Structures are given as structure tokens and as C-alpha cells.
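PROTEIN DESIGN WORKSHEET
SECTION A - STRUCTURE
LENGTH: 173
C-ALPHA CELLS:
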């Protein structure tokens, strides 16, 4: 699966609920997990790969891979914590983001079975980060406008350098 990156307006699109969880979601979930592992990420949401349905996967080291279809955040803690985040859709960019320290989420797995999960720490953070993607929110939307503008400029500059490099190597052939 190809991961969409910052600047692609599709990342700002709100995902639609999955109407019926069928066998195809076993395949979609596996493709998402394969892409996540290939890119060495912690989470990946459908909108990041052009699938505008409410599905995301997470795999935090030391835990099992988890699939969330049509998730709902039931509760978050009032306690928050600042922690460095990155995103496969904004590669190479990391910054501190304040998020709740715990979350309670309800969702369905890839077999259509409902579950509720209460968790803390990095797993809670990753779930909240991926849930944001379903609503067209990027982690840079959760920081100051000034810092966000610097990050976007840095990302665009890095992208332009990569494009220039690719063009040079193509003309050299």
C-alpha cells in the first residue's frame, strides 16, 4: 500500500463508517499491518493509504497487532502527557504532542467481533493518533500554529530536495 503524505488533501478527508465487516477486512487488515511493519511504524489508518473507511491498525512493541474497525473513543483521562510523535504520512518529522495518558475505546475486529479496550501509555497514544486520522486530523494540528508552520516548511523543503534528486537521477539515465 502506498502511504499518502502531507500535502495530499485526501489526508484531511473524514473516513466513513464500514457498513458491513466481511472477509475482505481480513485482507485489508493484513495489508495495513504488512505496510505498517514494512515502514517500521506503530500505527496506520485507512485514510493514510487512500482507504476512506474507519479502520486502523496498531502494533506497539511487546504487544499483539490490533485492528480497530469503526472505533469510538468512550473515555480519555484528564491527565495528559507531552511525548514525541511522528507519522508515516509526515516521514522524518517528530515533535512533542500533548495527549491524554489513557483511553477507553470500543471497536470491531477484522472478524466483526466487538471489543472494548482500556489502555495507557504508548498504546493509548498510538490509538488516539490513529483515531485522529479517521477524522482528517494530523498530529501537527495538535501543536502551536507557529511550530506547525515550521514543520510544514521543513517537510516541504525536504520533499523538494528529494524530488530534485530523483529528477537528476532520471536525467542521468
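SECTION B - SEQUENCE
RESIDUE ASSIGNMENT:
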Amino acid at each position: 500500500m502506498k502511504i499518502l503524505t502531507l500535502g495530499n488533501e485526501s489526508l484531511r478527508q473524514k473516513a466513513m463508517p464500514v457498513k458491513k465487516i466481511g472477509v475482505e477486512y481480513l485482507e485489508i487488515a493484513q495489508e495495513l499491518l504488512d505496510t505498517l511493519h514494512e515502514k517500521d511504524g506503530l500505527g496506520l489508518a485507512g485514510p493514510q493509504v487512500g482507504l476512506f473507511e474507519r479502520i486502523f491498525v496498531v502494533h506497539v512493541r511487546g504487544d499483539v497487532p490490533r485492528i480497530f474497525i469503526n472505533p469510538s473513543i468512550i473515555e480519555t483521562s484528564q491527565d495528559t502527557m507531552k511525548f514525541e510523535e511522528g507519522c508515516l504520512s509526515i516521514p522524518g518529522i517528530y515533535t512533542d504532542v500533548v495527549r491524554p495518558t489513557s483511553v477507553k475505546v470500543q471497536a470491531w475486529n477484522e472478524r466483526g467481533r466487538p471489543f472494548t479496550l482500556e489502555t495507557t501509555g504508548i498504546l493509548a497514544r498510538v490509538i488516539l493518533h490513529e483515531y485522529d486520522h479517521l477524522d482528517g486530523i494530523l498530529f501537527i494540528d495538535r501543536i502551536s500554529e507557529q511550530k506547525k508552520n515550521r514543520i510544514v516548511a521543513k517537510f516541504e523543503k525536504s520533499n523538494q530536495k528529494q524530488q530534485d534528486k530523483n529528477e537528476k537521477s532520471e536525467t542521468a539515465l
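SECTION C - NOTES
DSSP finds three helices and seven strands in the chain.
The chain has one domain: 9-142.
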